[in-house]
């Protein structure tokens, strides 16, 4: 009766455990949290914002420049004017004239406008280059997101694997505890020796240690995921252990379109476009530059009093209400010592190198996809074999337990059947998540990691 009660607790443990378990962290929720909170992804988003600012019309050179200037000058002078040997109209000697605290002010203000009508199409191609640079930044951010998602799922599935291993080891521990009680009952009735009790106690100790180690590994893995998700390191949760594999025909369809979706290849193509615009930007140095200038100014001069003519003291004011000027300029660098020619040649060489790099990346991506596909298919087969192996060992364990209860086999033989089942279950868990990670790596290479439901 006591044994039946233990079996009842063992069978219903997953049910009661599910009631008391922590909150569930689904794969979809983990993706959302990573996209919103991960530091690397946040930095990548900021880089996109910088590239977008650079590619705006405010940074294109198409808009004119407008500057304003203003100034004021104040003078205060004491002057003395001498007239040696000069006579007034009545024949008397002409005396000196002194002017003290003679103040003068000057004011000016102007607005200047400069606009480039034509610069050899340099700014036109520079603006297009900035647009391509923005596209490159988005691809680099996408690569960062893909790598982060792969890292996140790697840790997520490690938590799932350890969770399943923990459940398996808890079941093994319960079975070993049940063996102790059976051995004690049998010893009381003289059906076995003290050695069977000691063997069962040793197995309980080993199972307990294995369970503790798995729990510690599980706690560490959860903290690793909390770092990726940028949340409280001690956040507790349960993960989804359900794994669904993508159908083979869909995988092959992704592979066929990988050249147009792989982020590394797309980056090389964008860099190729940037290099093409570099050539055109440098060629603009062969053409003239035409510009317009305009200005509007205002001046006011308040002159200091001075002595002139008949010796009277006269202040003076000169005010220019406003003046406008317009102008055009043409600059053509007929020969710059060969600098433009060298820059154009170097830009063409850089473009040729980028073409070679693109071909190399395409070849490497094709190789990586074929390798990833082979690894994925191999791990999927291993997982299927391990599933069958669990069924075989489960059947062997059940029969061994029946034989052990009847006394037909020893506790050592029963323990070996239990260990075989435990190893088969943990190997199956490892194979399952290894196969899923191989699938994710294949999806990343085909450019579909962010486009499918996992």
TrEMBL record:
PANTHER family hit by this protein: OUTER MEMBRANE PROTEIN TOLC
UniProt protein name: TolC family protein
InterPro entries documented for this protein: OMP_efflux, TolC-like
Assigned protein family: Belongs to the outer membrane factor (OMF) (TC 1.B.17) family.
Localisation: Cell outer membrane
Domain of life: Bacteria
Keyword set, alphabetical order: Cell outer membrane, Membrane, Transmembrane, Transmembrane beta strand, Transport
Record carries keyword Isomerase: no
SUPFAM superfamilies the record matches: Outer membrane efflux proteins (OEP)
Pfam families: OEP
């Amino acid at each position: 009766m006591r044994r039946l009660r233990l079996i009842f607790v063992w069978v219903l443990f997953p049910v009661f455990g599910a009631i008391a378990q922590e909150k569930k962290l689904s794969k979809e929720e983990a993706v959302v949290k990573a996209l919103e909170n991960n530091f690397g992804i946040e930095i990548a988003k900021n880089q996109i914002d910088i590239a977008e600012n650079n590619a705006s019309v405010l940074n294109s050179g198409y808009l004119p420049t407008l500057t304003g200037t203003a100034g004021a000058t104040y003078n205060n002078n004491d002057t003395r004017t001498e007239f040696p040997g000069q006579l007034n109209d009545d024949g008397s000697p002409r005396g000196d004239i002194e002017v003290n605290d003679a103040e003068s002010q000057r004011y000016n203000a102007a607005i200047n406008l400069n606009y480039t009508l034509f610069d050899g199409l340099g700014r036109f191609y520079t603006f297009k280059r900035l647009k391509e640079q923005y596209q490159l930044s988005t691809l680099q951010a996408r690569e960062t997101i893909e790598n982060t998602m792969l890292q996140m799922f790697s840790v997520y599935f490690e938590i799932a694997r350890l969770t399943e291993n923990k459940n398996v080891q808890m079941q093994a521990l319960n079975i070993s505890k049940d063996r102790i009680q059976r051995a004690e009952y049998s010893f009381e009735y003289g059906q076995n020796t003290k050695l069977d009790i000691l063997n069962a106690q040793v197995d309980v100790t080993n199972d307990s240690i294995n369970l503790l180690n798995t729990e510690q590994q599980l706690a560490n893995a959860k903290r690793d995921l909390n770092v990726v998700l940028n949340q409280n390191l001690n956040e507790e949760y349960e993960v989804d252990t359900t794994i669904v594999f993508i159908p083979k025909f869909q995988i092959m369809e992704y592979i066929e379109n990988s050249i147009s979706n792989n982020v590394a290849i797309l980056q090389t193509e964008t860099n190729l476009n940037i290099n093409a615009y570099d050539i055109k930007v440098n060629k603009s140095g062969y053409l003239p530059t035409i510009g317009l200038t305009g200005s509007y100014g205002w001046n006011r001069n308040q002159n200091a009093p001075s002595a002139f003519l008949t010796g009277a003291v006269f202040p003076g004011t000169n005010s220019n209400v406003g003046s406008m000027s317009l102008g055009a300029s043409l600059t053509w660098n007929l020969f710059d010592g060969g600098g433009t020619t060298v820059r154009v040649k170097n830009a063409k060489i850089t473009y040729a190198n980028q073409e070679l790099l693109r071909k190399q990346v395409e070849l490497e991506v094709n190789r990586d996809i074929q390798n990833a596909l082979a690894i994925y298919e191999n791990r999927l087969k291993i997982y299927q074999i391990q599933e069958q192996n669990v069924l075989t060992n489960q059947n062997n364990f059940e029969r061994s337990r029946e034989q052990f209860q009847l006394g037909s086999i020893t506790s050592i033989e029963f323990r070996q059947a239990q260990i075989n089942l435990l190893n088969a279950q943990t190997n199956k868990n490892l194979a399952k998540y290894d196969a899923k990670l191989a699938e994710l790596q294949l999806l990343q290479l085909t450019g579909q990691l962010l486009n499918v439901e996992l």
